[in-house]
Amino acid sequence: MSYTRRKFLSTIVVSASAVALGGLAGCGGSSNSSPAPTPPPAPTPTPKPTGLQPGAKFFPQSLMSGDPKPDSVILWTRVEDMAADDIKVQLQVATDKEFTDIRVDEMLNAYKDNDHCLKVRVTDLDPYKTYYYRFVYINDEVQYVTNVGRTKTAPETTADQAVKFAFVSCQDYVGRFYNAYLSVLNQPELDFVVHLGDYIYETTGDPEFQNVDGRSFEFTDTDGAIKIGQGDKAYYSAQSMSNYRELYKTYRSDEVLREVHENFPMIAIWDDHEFSDDSWQNVATTTDGASDEKNLQRKQNSERVYFEYMPIDHEHASDKTIDLGKGELAITQEHLFPNTTIYRDFDFGKHVKLLMTDFRTHRPDHLIPEDAFPGTVVMDQATTSAVIAQAKGIPLANATAFVQATFMAYIDIDAPQYNVLKTVLTDVVAGLYKADYMSIVGDDAQTAATKGAAMAAKVVSGKLVIDYLNEIIKQIPASLKAVYNLDVLSSDGLERGIAYMTLGKASLFSKLGSRYMVIKDVFDLYAGYKASIDPQSQNAFGDKQTAWLSQQVMTSTATWKVMGSSVSFAPLIFDLSSDRVSTGIPQLEGMFDSDAIPALFKNRFYVNADHWDGFPQAKAKLTNDLLSAAGVITLSGDVHSSYVSEHAPSSVTGLRSYGFTASSISSGTQGTFIDDALQGLASSLAPESAATFKALNPFFNLLTQTATTRSDVPTTLKMSELWKHGIGVVTANSDSFTVDFHQFPTMSDDVNYVTTSFYDKRDDFLGMVETSQYQLKDGALTKVS
């Protein structure tokens, strides 16, 4: 599909060095009416309102600003008039909120093709200065005006200026309110707000994490959306431009979010939900591999609407060599996926260099596919032994003995002696796939049977671990086993290796054992092996972004080099193994050592392999060779929990990288997710352990911290909070970098602080927000309060 300039949002460049219109008195008339013949005399009309009139009905999303530079800023609004085609809108920028000192006065076009969004780059501004702005729409000779917006430019790169800003992420709208933003609004001195992604969520009521009993909405264009699930559990996910536009309009109907935008410029990056949950490149993962979710048009729709509705300087991000002061610049097809570039940098005086990175656009697939057949061997005995021998520096014979004692036995199902077993297993597995295709995708019985048979023929082949095969054999009726003389397989004399089941994968289509709750030690081994044969398998940033990041970090002279990452560098590990570090709680340690925890769960788990833990070797290399070497500080979101992390020092420079992860504005906490995941695993693998896992909930914070104190974990969590929502606030100056966490629980004293609006009771909410402060100074991290 080809697009003209009008099909895409233009960022119009206007300069503060000249005032074009000279004030509102100079403009009048309707922007969408045509000249008409002189009408006959008519009764005296009702006098029209004079002066500026409140324009909320024409500007329902109000206005916003973003990407502040020392001499420029992006301004945004959207006009809503169903009767209008393209709409003329007036922009005014002044140095005072009364608009007595107007620096910009321009008439601009909000195009219908762009959903009447208007995004303007204002140049020739003064550094580190507060400006006020507004938009005016003249309809039927009446001037309708937005609320007054406040924005602020960055200080000159040579300025010895302290900087203060908030960082936020993850603001699900469905069933939830944005009370966390009240902590931002309570600090009017903030210079800007960094949004680290998940500004919207693409679904209208995903039962896994969204509660439609509270505030909710439905897509108008359901034909253009993707229906997910069956029956009463069905919901829709955005696909068309109309769907994505409706999401942004709905989210901005929130009065507190609009107020944040009216008061602070925002520097934003996307994560996954701006397109689709846990996505990579243009591939969604909603059905966990049960259907092909690669969708170029959907990806491009999501990007285009993001560029329409967010105050990001997408042209300059795409081409960092362009002249910011000249011309009308447009997004073209070449700027959308797979060519998308939104990573970019900002300088705030001589103390802060901010680098906003993009984790989703260029990253490869998750290392364990969601549709991986659990029984498939991915590293046979010879391969596993060789990898361990090299990694540990031990003789191959010793490594082989370790593999024989540790990993799963397997057979080659294609060997002649297993012909009957293969035939029976293929039929049984085909039935399992058929059931999943019907329940997950909604296929009819015949279609599901055909697809199931094809998948079974594909996966019941080659080397398969007998632990998984025996579970299937146990499900075969005794009469059928007697006919075919089948019994569970013995491991005696068999080779052993690593299968997807060894990594934690237990179901045909599942995020558990793929993106979440993977067994760490085996996963690290497999990830390293895979990287050795496919170096791109962990290239999360892509070559160009990695080179850009390295160049920016190594050439910056800023006091504090700060990297904005949508996903966290904090290791999120659950360690239930016998080698764990003690929690110091005898009752808890006794539980871990007892049979109450099944043997399968007595491992170390990566809770979330969708973020940097999912690329362990790439994470280690980036952290060691660049972030710690240059003392980079990372700010992150995504994981709905808060962490302060301290990475190992660089062996070259002696510096460390530190990470600060802030929890969600409104989205469900990580503690809730882990609780649900453990209950899900228990229900399918060890139902008798469900109550035991539930008893672990109060200890999640402690468990994640102690898991990082083992000697083979190079990053230590100095703070871990999995049950609270909140934001982070940074204050950076010449000698210190301070982060204040503002956090609150979902529930307290029978009050839900997420599903209940405190917009009219702000002091009540702020009174129960908990704050803690961490400071970097003189190369050391301390908890101040």
The CATH topology of the largest domain corresponds to: Immunoglobulin-like
Count of DSSP-assigned helices: 19
Q: How many domains, as an integer?
A: 3
Shape: globular
**Percent of residues in helices:** 25-40%
Radius of gyration: 29 Å
Distance between the termini: 56 Å
Low-confidence runs of at least 5 consecutive residues: 1-10, 25-36
The largest sheet has its strands arranged as 15-12-11-31-32-35-36
CATH level 1 name of the largest domain: Mainly Beta
- Structural category is alpha+beta
Report the strand count.
36
User: Roughly what is the average pLDDT, rounded to an integer?
Assistant: 93
Can you walk me through this structure?
The protein has about 775 residues and is an alpha+beta fold. The protein has 3 domains: about 5-35 and about 50-155 and about 200-270 and about 270-340, Immunoglobulin-like, CATH 2.60.40; about 375-530, no CATH class; about 540-785, no CATH class. Helix content is about 25%, strand content about 25%. It has 19 helices and 36 strands. The strands form 8 sheets. A 7-stranded mixed beta sheet has the order 15-12-11-31-32-35-36, with no helix packed on it. Strands 17-18-24-27-29-28-30 form a 7-stranded mixed beta sheet. Strands 2, 5, 6, 8, 9 and 10 form a 6-stranded mixed beta sheet that branches. Strand 11, helix 1 and strand 12 form a beta-alpha-beta unit. Helix 2 runs parallel beside helix 4, helix 6 crosses helix 7 (about 395-405) and helix 8 (about 420-440) packs across helix 9 (about 445-460). It starts with 9 loop residues before the first strand and ends with a strand. Residues about 1-10 and about 25-35 have low confidence and may be disordered.
